[in-house]
């Protein structure tokens, strides 16, 4: 299975780099030396991606960033080059169509007779001409197709490459600044008809997808904790994907979570990445930091049911979500807020009468236009939505996965303020 997946990745990466070579090297170079240098560079960059995805894991955690920074930045730049060049194919084809038709329409009417006379002269070499010379004379080199202009084609290719390069570098530059900068602090009022009047204004600081790993460490956690503590929330909810690595590697980076402050405590549910990183060790570690892990269970908060379910990916290891366990037998007159990593879990939540689900996972698409693809799988990509009568709020997350780039989907920490009807 892994071999098949790797083969598919290599095929896709190879196809994309072949297209980039064609547009950025073949169409822009006029010398063999220039084309060889460009080809070597494209091949090296193509190999960098599988090396980053696979070989970097073999390095000690402290050295993984050596490959991760160039590899993931190129992955982001590759994506935006592909998108911009694909968009520019439309004007490129239009220009080529126009240049092919233009010269043909402007060709002098008497050009054909002149060509015929020259051709006739060429086919009748003087007497005594050697056979080899006669054959050469009788077969002139083929004329270029109408509208063909090597200089114009080279100019078009270079203009297209410069435009795509400038736009892609700008997108990656802006996206990197957003990804590495502080998350937006969003204040989101949400109405729950069953909410007790005494809880009006109750604030939940919601954060997800912190993604501690080779590129995000302890300082990232410290900044998030400072921002959350600054709002003096009633409750903190961390809804999964805290880490991309083991407790041994990332325990010190997660340690600042012990400094979270909220009147009614801090809570956590697993995300899919916890199941790639030794989930049981992380559950123990997070609990030891004073953040309670809700594992298909609920707690009472001033007359509100706060429930949490495991991530869908836990099913593969016998630790999946159990909505009946978390929500069964409760008083349905009480409001219930569910913490669940993935928005798709709202379909099950709706069947159990959940009033509000708080989720992450999507990153808001992370790099537009990926948000369009995410919307095909997730009922809510970012912000507040409705799934079968259950309100679903999805934070874009405070970190990133893969490329250190967030373009069109800046990171956020959301402060949910609850109000009654």
Verbal overview:
- This protein is of the alpha/beta class.
- It has 2 domains: 1-103 and 147-180, no CATH class; 184-419, Purple Acid Phosphatase, chain A, domain 2, CATH 3.60.21.
- 45% of the residues lie in helices and 14% in strands.
- It is built from 12 helices and 12 strands.
- It has helices at residues 2-26, 32-54, 65-106, 111-122, 131-138, 150-180, 218-230, 247-254, 279-288, 323-327, 346-351, 370-377, and strands at 184-191, 202-207, 235-238, 266-268, 291-293, 297-301, 304-308, 336-339, 356-359, 383-387, 390-394, 412-419.
- The strands form 2 sheets. It has a 6-stranded mixed sheet.
- Strand 8 (336-339), helix 11 (346-351) and strand 9 form a beta-alpha-beta unit.
- Helix 3 runs antiparallel to helix 6 (150-180) and helix 7 (218-230) runs parallel beside helix 8 (247-254).
- It is elongated.
- 37% of the residues are buried.
- Mean pLDDT is 89; it is low at 104-124 and 132-137.
- Residues 129-149 are annotated as: Disordered.
- The chain crosses the membrane at residues 6-25, 37-59, 71-91, 160-180.
- Pfam families: Metallophos.
- Residues 129-138 have a biased composition (Low complexity).
- Residues 202-364 form the Calcineurin-like phosphoesterase domain.
């Amino acid at each position: 299975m892994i071999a098949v997946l790797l083969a598919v990745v290599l095929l896709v990466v190879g196809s994309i780099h072949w297209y980039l070579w064609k547009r950025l090297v073949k169409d822009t170079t006029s010398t063999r030396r220039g084309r060889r240098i460009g080809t070597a560079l494209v091949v090296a960059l193509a190999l960098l991606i599988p090396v980053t995805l696979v070989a970097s894991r073999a390095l000690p955690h402290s050295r993984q960033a050596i490959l991760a920074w160039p590899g993931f930045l190129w992955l982001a730049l590759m994506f935006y080059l592909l998108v911009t060049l694909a968009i520019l194919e439309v004007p490129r084809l239009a220009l080529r169509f126009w240049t092919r038709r233009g010269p043909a329409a402007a060709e002098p009417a008497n050009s054909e007779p002149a060509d015929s006379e020259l051709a006739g002269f060429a086919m009748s070499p003087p007497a005594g001409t050697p056979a080899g010379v006669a054959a050469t004379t009788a077969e002139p080199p083929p004329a270029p197709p109408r509208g063909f202009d090597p200089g114009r084609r080279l100019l078009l290719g270079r203009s297209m490459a410069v435009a795509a390069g400038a736009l892609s570098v700008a997108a990656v530059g802006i996206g990197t600044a957003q990804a590495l900068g502080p998350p937006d602090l969003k204040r989101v009022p949400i109405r729950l008809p069953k909410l007790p009047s005494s809880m009006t204004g109750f604030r939940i600081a919601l954060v997800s997808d912190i993604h501690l790993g080779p590129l995000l460490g302890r300082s990232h956690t410290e900044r998030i904790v400072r921002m959350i503590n600054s709002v003096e929330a009633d409750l903190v909810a961390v809804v999964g994907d805290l880490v991309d690595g083991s407790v041994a590697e990332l325990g010190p980076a997660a340690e600042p979570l012990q400094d979270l402050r909220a009147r009614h405590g801090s809570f956590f549910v697993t995300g899919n990445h916890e199941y790639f990183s030794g989930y049981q060790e992380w559950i123990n570690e997070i609990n030891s930091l004073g953040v309670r892990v809700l594992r298909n269970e609920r707690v009472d908060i001033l007359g509100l049911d706060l429930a949490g379910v495991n991530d869908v990916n836990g099913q593969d290891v016998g630790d999946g979500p159990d909505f009946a366990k978390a929500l069964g037998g409760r008083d349905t007159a009480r409001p219930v807020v569910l913490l669940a990593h993935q928005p798709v879990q709202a379909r099950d939540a709706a069947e159990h009468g959940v009033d509000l689900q708080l989720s992450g996972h999507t990153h808001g698409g992370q790099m537009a236009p990926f948000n369009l693809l995410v919307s095909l799988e997730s009922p809510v990509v970012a912000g507040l939505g409705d799934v079968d009568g259950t309100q679903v709020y999805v934070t874009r997350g405070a970190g990133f996965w893969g490329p250190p780039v967030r373009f069109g989907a800046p990171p956020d920490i959301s402060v949910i303020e609850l109000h009654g009807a």
